[in-house]
Amino acid sequence: MPTLKTTYGTWTQISSSGMLDNLFSDSNYLAGRATNLVDNTVAGYDDYMVACAVKTDTLGSDSAALLQLWVIPEPALLPSSGLPVSEGAYSFSNSGRRNSFAVQVGSSPSIAGLGGTIYGCKPVGISQFFGGVCPSKFVLWLVQGIGTLYPTGSLGGSIWYQGISRTLV
Questions:
Q1: Predicted confidence (pLDDT) per residue in 9-36, tens digit
Q2: pLDDT tens digits, one per residue of 79-105
Q3: Structural domain harbouring 155
Q4: Rg (alpha carbons) of the chain, rounded to whole number
Q5: Which of 7, 38, 47, 104 would bridge 125 by S-S if both were Cys, CB 3.0 to 4.6 A apart?
Q6: What is the CATH number of the domain that holds 107?
Q7: Contact 112, 45 (CB under 8 A)
Q8: In the chain, how many domains are there?
Q9: What is the DSSP string of 63-99?
Q10: Count of CB atoms within 10 A of residue 154's CB?
Q11: Confidence band, pLDDT 50/70/90 cuts, at residue 54
Q12: Which residues on adjacent β-strands are paired with residue 90?
């Protein structure tokens, strides 16, 4: 009788050094940073685990602030959509547009503490948000309402992913 074998790729940092620098707090959760496009058409993974972590410099006054990680899948990434396909700052014009094109896959707990603290979104598989099927291409988008972040190159903060394959053996 065949059994299902799960194979895990290595955790890969998708955000380049400095990508999260100056990711300022946005209490509306509309202004964030996008990663480069992840193209799964070559690797053909069944799922991707995604996670993020940042280290705060100062905290804003909102003790209910969150760090949110979103996935923007293809076909929302068609050129006519105007959505990001490369690393950099990206702002949605309103929450309706954000919620139409992106899926929130993770968030940190509510934050009430001191600056210099590391917060993150725990690892989560993204295929569950798309009917059990991994998008062929996607962008990760991070937004936060925490406060000012430390520069990523020196004190930490990044977005990671790990491909997962399942085969019958």
A1: 999 887 665 666 656 667 788 888 888 8
A2: 677 777 788 888 888 899 888 889 999
A3: 4-168
A4: 16
A5: 47
A6: 2.60.120
A7: no
A8: 1
A9: TTB-EEEEEEETTTTSGGG----SSEEEE-SSHHHHH
A10: 11
A11: confident
A12: 32
